[in-house]
Design goal:
979 residues, alpha+beta, TIM Barrel, Trefoil (Acidic Fibroblast Growth Factor, subunit A), six-stranded antiparallel beta sheet, 48 strands, globular
Length: 979
């Protein structure tokens, strides 16, 4: 069903009749003295939402309606309407508004595989968002930009921590749970209005505004859309945010699917927003240069389905001026503005803004923020999200006799937060959590070297300030702690320097290097350095922060004394100071001393979220920092009872580490209760049941380029990957063991008996996968269709029911552009992970057989079966996808085709460069049926129809054959026929 107001037009007659019935006058322009309490119909909660919106829309001037289209919507005092803002960050807690409960990162929440728990977390975050409403701090709003539902198809994506899973079904399940918690579960009365990010095909940060994600129809329909659609269908979100990238050559900001598809997934109105500054990318002065002016770009975005422009921070003038110009130039009609403004107002009505007292949730106050109940929930979520990767010889849980425990490692004494994290109201780090569990202090060490940097030419030391605010680094003759720094290695050659004098990190402040930061942070993360060893054994100190992203610093920059007093500044490599790296204290030796002879050693290693991959910065590799891995090995040799906790936001290639240590536990950066949650799991108070939501690969060699979005062709994710993973999708161990009975078909799905055969209570995540044995099309090796996390006491058996309908087996048929269930045999696989299958059966589907391709009908080129040397491109700036050849000899395969008997002609719509299109049978070099010559159209958006006679071989061909179209470089192909 199409959204209620997708083509909104003011219904003035209806509104006037309604107002007259209520005894209220409704002039074209309301009286200036209108008060918030005046009995306008839009303030009457007894009326349907659409009537209230229509009433309010009819009372606004054109300028007022235009003002609603920017992120920062001004107040309209004459109607008693307050200001409104789209976009409060809330990925795993309320962010950027002050202290609030910080839950585990999104990928950690999904690792619980527990939608009921995630719905509770979402509800808590929704409550806390409301909790700020009485004071309305700057940046607050009830439209939330969460959750992120881009499937995590490549673990190198810098924003991996923000998503849920590489599987779209698991992703949408978690997003629906979290979103339902945020909304309150009643789409007519919203607690908050969540927005799904980022539509569409957004999974790389490198050149993210200029790269195009090629989404062939099957990848689009079966993978990318399936992460978004179920959550919108469930009314667990109230809109989507368009992404920065291009999709099939067209900027996502003007993707017509925002209207044509997304709004058809629900009967509720949606509020679609742009990503920050994305409208400015569209124009000639931006990175995409898709339109000449902002008026053209904004008009195109509105027509595509955008309702709110996130750009220019709080300054709405460029947006409103551009929209007004577009109206004056005929690029937009007032009805287009009404449509978008109506979508905005619909959400505001459902949020209760115009209800007495703010509606159902209007009385919530700040007492809910970081409440005891939310602290308890944060601890539960963090514990339930932890994934036990290895547990040889029952190393875990730590025995009751383990009283003397050492906790070491670079993440033992701290909690890091990510870019979209809230402000921690308190921080229980791993060492503190374990100490609290034991009831006594524990021995510890961060295991990092403390060094001094001595200029080998002058003998002066790099020194920092000793007060809390730090001072500019300089070279001086002094020593002591002012000349000492703790070096944290984060891999890829990047380190951070923490001053021993005040415990603060060194960062660049655009003028000097100062030791004044609590942790690495900021958009440009200016606390990054590299110590580059030279042939003579000295070191250069390279600044690795801001310059990595700015073209005018394309050459590496280094540190050296630039002031008369020795103050350090940026210099060219040839002028860089050469330093001796004097080790004041060996981190490894200190850690080894701390763990030797202890009952157990816990080593906490991992990532720094601002450095090891984040927004605008994809990961360079997937391994632990070399010094961290060396630390683990040294500790293990000193104490064989070593447990390793890997605390990061993504799959990691653990190499030899996985083979050597007896126990491995993975957690995300899990928020304020991280330490308590880890202690709960390590000591067995919580039986781990977290499961991996992504494949953990053995090396980067298992992955194609991060820019390749075709999961099917490039065997991405567990669905198509044929290699040997380090850890499989869905993997996770328990302190208990579980036995599965025979899976049986029941009405609406399947059931299987699961028994806890261990000695303690525990949770098992029962997972159901399917595999289609025979198909016209390449099918996944396995595909998750259902799951359930169940709690079982020792010896308890429970029958778990898993929903699976025949229609859930459908895939996208490119020959007819429709969903289809093929007749045949499907394997139904139930187990503890995608590789640990415990019980199986088969399903005979009475579907249909996909007929041979009928190429006598107009066929869209994008509906190919295979390809080489082509890109998917925009057929026009408004809509449509064509295929563009990126080299001579590029080809498209249309499999299983039956050329029409007696076919005599090939016809095609082409644009772009001159060249030829060859029609061949069997292969790109097979029997030549015909060649169409293309003279070139002068524009990639100007199409011409070309034709060519077909040889007698076309008419003589029997049965089904594969037809290939071979293209010349620079040509675009939209549609074709063989008749």
């Amino acid at each position: 069903m199409k959204g209620k107001r997708n083509s909104r037009r003011p219904r003035i007659t209806l509104v006037l009749a309604l107002v007259a019935g209520l005894g209220v006058t409704a002039p074209a322009t309301a009286a200036p003295a209108a008060a918030a309490g005046q009995a306008y119909p839009f303030r009457d909660p007894r009326l349907p939402v659409d009537r209230r919106v229509d009433d309010l829309l009819s009372r606004l001037t054109l300028d007022e309606k235009v003002s609603l289209l920017h992120q920062w919507q001004p107040a309209i005092p004459r109607l008693g309407i307050q200001a409104f803002k789209t976009g409060t960050e809330a990925l795993h807690g309320v962010a950027w508004l002050g202290e609030a409960t910080v839950f585990p990162q999104a990928v950690g929440l999904a690792s619980t595989w527990d939608p009921a728990l995630i719905r509770r977390v979402g509800s808590a975050v929704g409550d806390e968002t409301r909790g700020f409403q009485q004071e309305r701090p700057t940046g607050w709003g009830l439209n939330l930009w969460a959750p992120v539902v881009n499937p995590l198809r490549d673990p190198r994506w810098g924003r991996n921590e923000e998503g849920y899973s590489e599987d779209p079904y698991l992703t949408s399940s978690m997003a629906t749970a979290y979103g339902t918690g945020l909304t309150g579960g009643d789409p007519e009365h919203l607690k908050t209005a969540p927005t799904l990010k980022h539509f569409l095909g957004n999974n790389n940060e490198a050149d993210r505004t200029t790269t195009s994600s090629d989404l062939r129809p099957r990848v689009l329909k079966e993978y990318e859309e399936q992460a978004f659609r179920p959550t919108i269908e469930a009314d667990a979100a109230t809109g989507v945010m368009s992404s920065y990238n291009l999709v099939n050559g067209r900027p996502a900001t003007v993707n017509p699917a925002l209207d044509d598809d997304v709004r058809t997934w629900t009967s509720q109105d949606l509020l679609n927003v742009t990503d920050a500054y994305a409208p400015n990318n569209l124009i000639g002065t931006g990175s995409q240069k898709y339109y000449d002016t902002l008026a053209e770009g904004n008009a195109a975005a509105l027509k595509a389905g955008i309702d709110s422009f996130t750009t220019d921070d709080t300054n709405s003038v460029p947006t409103t001026t551009a929209v007004t110009s577009a109206l004056a130039d005929g690029l937009l009609k007032e009805s287009d503005v009404d449509t978008a403004a109506g979508h905005v107002l619909d959400i505001r009505v459902r949020l209760g803004e115009f209800d007495p007292g703010g509606g159902r949730y209007g009385s919530i106050d700040k007492s809910v923020v970081n409440s005891p109940a939310h602290r308890k929930l944060a601890r539960q979520a963090a514990a339930d999200a932890a994934v036990l990767l290895k547990n040889a010889g029952g190393a875990l849980p730590l025995k009751a006799a383990a009283k003397d425990v050492a906790v070491v490692g670079p993440l033992a004494d701290t909690l890091y937060t990510d870019w979209y994290s809230g402000t921690l109201p308190y921080a229980v780090n791993p060492k503190a959590g374990i100490a609290a569990r034991l009831g006594s202090p524990v021995t510890g060490s961060e295991g990092v070297d403390r060094i001094a940097l001595r200029n080998t030419a002058s003998g002066a030391y790099v020194t920092a300030g000793t007060d809390a605010d730090g001072e500019a680094l300089k070279e001086s003759a002094g020593g002591g702690t002012a000349a000492q720094f703790d070096v944290f290695d984060w891999g890829a050659g990047i380190v951070t320097l923490r001053s021993a004098a005040n415990g603060k990190y060194v960062g660049y402040n655009w003028s000097n290097f100062v030791n004044d930061q609590v942790q690495p942070n900021g958009w440009f993360v200016q606390q990054q350095f590299a110590l580059e060893e030279q042939a003579d054994g000295t070191y250069l100190l390279r600044y690795a922060g801001y310059e990595t992203r700015e073209p005018w610093w394309s050459n590496p920059v280094y540190l050296g004394p630039t002031g008369s007093d020795g103050t350090l500044g940026l210099v060219a490599k040839s002028e860089a100071a050469h330093y001796a790296r004097d080790v004041v204290r060996s981190g490894t030796e200190e850690a080894v001393a701390a763990v030797r002879g202890k009952d157990a050693a816990v080593v906490v290693v991992g990532s720094m979220p601002a450095i090891n991959g984040r927004e605008n910065d994809d990961r360079e590799d997937m391994s632990l920092a070399p010094s961290q891995e060396a630390l683990v090995e040294a500790v293990r040799q000193a104490n064989p009872r070593t447990v390793v906790v890997v605390e990061n936001s993504y799959p990691t290639t653990l190499g030899a580490l996985q083979e050597k240590v007896p126990a491995l536990l993975w957690t995300t950066h899990a928020g304020q209760e991280t330490g308590n949650a880890l202690a709960d799991v390590l000591f067995g108070d919580v039986n781990p049941a977290g499961r991996l939501t992504q494949t953990w690969y053995r090396s980067e060699a298992d992955l194609p380029s991060i820019l390749e979005y075709d999961n099917i062709k490039y065997d991405r994710t567990y669905q198509y990957f044929k290699g040997d993973p380090l850890y499989a999708f869905g993997y996770g161990l328990s302190y208990s063991s579980f036995r599965y009975g025979q899976v049986r078909r029941v009405d609406g799905g399947y059931e299987v008996a699961v028994t806890n055969t261990g000695g303690g209570a525990g949770d098992e995540v029962v997972q159901l996968y399917t595999h289609q044995r025979v198909s016209r099309d390449k099918q996944p090796v396995k595909q998750l269709k259902a799951f359930e996390r169940v709690s079982l006491k020792p010896g308890e058996t429970r029958t778990v029911r898993l929903k699976l309908r025949e229609k859930d087996l459908a895939h996208w048929d490119v020959t007819r552009s429709k969903w289809v269930v093929e007749s045949g045999t499907y394997d139904v696989l139930v187990g503890a992970s995608s590789e640990d299958i415990r019980s199986r059966t088969t399903l005979k589907a009475a579907g249909e057989t996909i007929p041979a391709r009928d190429l006598s009908r107009t066929t869209r080129a994008e509906n190919f079966d295979d390809y080489e040397g082509v890109r998917l491109v925009d057929e026009s700036k408004a809509r449509g996808t064509a295929v563009g050849a990126s080299r001579d000899g590029a080809w498209l395969k249309f499999a299983d085709a039956r050329p029409a008997a007696g076919a005599r002609e090939f016809r095609a719509r082409v644009a772009g460069a001159a060249g030829k299109v060859e029609v061949r049978l069997g292969s790109p070099s097979g029997t030549l049926l015909g060649t169409a010559t293309v003279s070139g159209t002068g524009s990639v958006y100007t199409y011409a129809e070309v034709s060519a006679p077909l040889s007698a071989a076309a008419g003589a061909s029997k049965g089904r054959q594969d037809v290939y179209l071979v293209l010349g470089d620079g040509m675009r192909l939209s549609t074709f026929t063989l008749r």
